[in-house]
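To the wet lab folks,

You asked to see what we're planning to order before we commit. Fair enough. Below is the target structure as tokens, and below that is the sequence we designed to fit it. If anything looks off to you, flag it before the synthesis order goes out.
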């Protein structure tokens, strides 16, 4: 079922049970609610009062990322994405300008040994990453969704150019799109008719997927593109269509 602001044709399509003029209409502030997804953009369902409540602003105490306003993550208080410098204390990688926390503070992202920044590298067993202090970290290979059952080492966060992603995320609020980590709607929740989204949303989604698990979208067969990786390949299709229209 769809979130408030998303396209609908029937009340049953919506988490709120209210479809109005082809869009799911959510509950306003102070309205009774049972789950976050019933509330309108910028609100969440307060578990104590059971009412739709305004999300937290910068510096306010929080308990989870989806309790903070768009463009912020929860690190005891709501902190702007990418706003903390290397060495500043946080466990939340998205709060760091490097998009990486070592569990205590922001740090430069590790780089894949012998890999490249243009995509995953095939492997058979382990992947080795080196951080700025030259400490080595080992991880198991990641299985890709390929017919040949290939395994890969994903690029390290230090291998990836974050500037495009930062630009896309900064644009999401202007486009009334919510970037969140809410478990029930995935990484990206949208608040517009999906048929009218521009390429900003899709480019952000593609970049985020590559940052977190690039191996999962390498050489996907058509059955994978149509099922478990459908959202990614739909985003690729949308951006390609947008580029063709612009050309």
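Sequence we intend to order:
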């Amino acid at each position: 079922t769809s979130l408030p602001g998303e396209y609908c044709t029937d009340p049953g399509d919506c988490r709120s049970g209210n479809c109005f003029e082809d869009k799911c209409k959510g509950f306003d502030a102070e309205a009774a609610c049972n789950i976050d997804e019933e509330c309108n953009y910028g609100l969440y369902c307060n578990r104590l009062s059971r009412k739709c409540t305004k999300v937290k602003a910068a510096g306010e105490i929080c308990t989870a990322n989806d309790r903070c306003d768009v463009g912020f993550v929860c690190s005891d208080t709501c902190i702007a994405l990418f706003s903390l410098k290397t060495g500043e204390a946080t466990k939340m990688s998205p709060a760091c300008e490097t998009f990486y926390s070592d569990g205590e503070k922001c740090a430069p992202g590790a780089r894949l040994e012998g890999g490249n920044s243009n995509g995953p590298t095939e492997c058979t067993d382990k992947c080795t990453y080196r951080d700025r202090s030259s400490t080595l970290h080992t991880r198991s290979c990641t299985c890709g969704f390929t017919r040949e059952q290939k395994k890969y080492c994903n690029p390290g966060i230090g291998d990836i150019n974050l500037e495009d992603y930062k630009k896309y995320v900064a644009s999401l609020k202007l486009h009334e799109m919510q970037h969140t980590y809410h478990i029930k709607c995935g990484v990206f929740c949208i608040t517009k008719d999906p048929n009218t989204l521009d390429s900003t949303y899709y480019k952000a989604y593609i970049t985020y997927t590559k940052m977190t698990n690039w191996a999962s979208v390498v050489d996907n067969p058509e059955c994978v593109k149509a099922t478990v990786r459908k959202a990614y390949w739909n985003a690729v299709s949308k951006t390609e269509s947008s580029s063709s229209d612009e050309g």
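Structural context that might help your review: Residues 188 and 245 are 25 Å apart (CA to CA). The helical segments are 163-174, 199-213, 222-225, 230-246.

Thanks,
Computational group
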